[in-house]
UniProtKB/TrEMBL annotation:
Name of the protein in question: Alpha/beta hydrolase
UniProt GO molecular function: hydrolase activity
Organism of derivation: Blastococcus brunescens
Gene3D superfamilies: alpha/beta hydrolase
Keywords associated with the record: Hydrolase
Lineage top rank: taxon: Bacteria
Length: 159
């Protein structure tokens, strides 16, 4: 959901100028220790801004941000979350996915563009489904829980 297979992301990051621009934050995320320090400093000011969707105010609902910050502030939690992004660095090899996979992507995602989203299919050898949610941003579970649940239940029903 939202973020594609790490190899698909790497291909798009290298080849698509739009994806490179959308990913301007990623170099910070790749810096173990520093990213955690920056995101949690000043009562997690930067993490809160990221979760809120920034100036667009199109992210996680305001009433949930404190809970997200509390969870991500627990020892090791933010590092665990950032490790997904660290797996997308160019020196990390991730094998193709062999199990049935449904990738849910939203067309208003500010971090992941269409090139990366569509490239995900190239790194799945099992049965693959691509579900696009129009008008939704990066925060799919918070903004489109019914559509996400439907995609999950559809996958389970045919597994």
């Amino acid at each position: 959901m939202s973020v594609p297979h790490p190899a698909a992301y790497t291909v798009a990051y290298r080849a698509d100028p739009e994806q490179k621009e959308r990913s301007s934050y990623i170099r910070l995320f790749w810096q173990a220790g520093k990213a955690e320090e920056v995101l949690l400093a000043d009562d997690a000011r930067r993490l809160r801004r990221m979760l809120s969707g920034g100036e667009q105010d199109s992210g996680v609902p305001a009433e949930a941000i404190d809970e997200y910050v509390a969870v991500l502030s627990a020892p090791g939690a933010l590092t665990a979350a950032l490790n997904w992004y660290r797996a997308m660095s160019s020196d990390t090899r991730v094998d193709p996915v062999e199990v049935p996979t449904t990738y849910v992507w939203s067309d208003q995602d500010m971090a992941i563009g269409r090139t990366a989203a569509e490239a995900c299919a190239n790194f799945v050898t099992g049965d693959y489904r691509f579900v696009e949610l129009p008008g939704i941003t990066h925060w799919i579970p918070e903004q489109a829980p019914e559509q996400l649940t439907r995609a999950i239940l559809d996958r389970i029903a045919t597994a």
